[in-house]
Amino acid sequence: MIKVNALGDNCPIPVIKTKKAMQQLQGPETIEVLVDNEIAVQNVTKLGTGSGGKVTSEQLGDKEYKILIRLDEAPAAAADAPEECRPDSRGGFIVVISSDRMGSGNDELGKVLMKGFIYAVSQADTLPQQILFYNGGATLTSEGSDSLEDLKSMAAQGVEILTCGTCLDYYNLKEKLAVGQVTNMYSIVEAMEAAGKIIKP
Q1: Peptide bond between residue 128 and the one before it cis (omega within 30 degrees of 0)
Q2: pLDDT digits (tens, 9 = 90+) for 68-99
Q3: Same domain, 191 and 140
């Protein structure tokens, strides 16, 4: 694994450091990049995916994020990758999830669809400002959820992940929340009122 420490570096330095690390690759390798802001996460993620890598990210602390770029081969495009700083990729909309499954009919299919929906949201060019989880949706932010990596990746890019505290209590999941923060119904209503657009699967 190649480690890149870009903590405290302003744009475009994290991208430049990551690109230089890519240019050193001779074959399959993983690059770990540490940065201290959400925009750097977005820019390094875009560089990694644009170079053919599989990228995951997570927030380690208040101002510390870890990005992993897994490359199967040395990327030929790394030398030509742009060093520009892109603006915040979050849009003025929120996603509201009230169940662990999508649609009605077959429950197992519904769970597969919901997992696919969250993954699709995480891969979109424009990310939501917030994702609100309540009722059965609370299970998706808790330990054992198949969507945790996608949610953690979005959280690392600045998406606010909020789960209803009453719902976590009801399902005995308060101690098992694995991503984001606990919220209440008043805050959920405020967020929905302020949103320019609401997407509900």
Answers
A1: no
A2: 999 987 665 554 555 566 667 777 899 999 99
A3: yes
Q: 158 falls in which pLDDT band (50, 70, 90)?
A: confident
Instruction: Provide the whole-model pTM.
Output: 0.65
Question: Is 24 part of a structural domain of the chain?
Answer: yes
3-state secondary structure of 71: strand
Number of H helices, E strands in the chain: 6, 9
Going by DSSP bridges, is the β-strand pair 197-199/54-61 parallel, antiparallel, or unpaired?
unpaired
Alpha helices, H only, the chain: 13-23, 38-50, 107-123, 148-156, 165-170, 185-194
Structure tokens at 80: 């030509």
Same domain, 101 and 153: yes
Same domain for 101 and 67: no
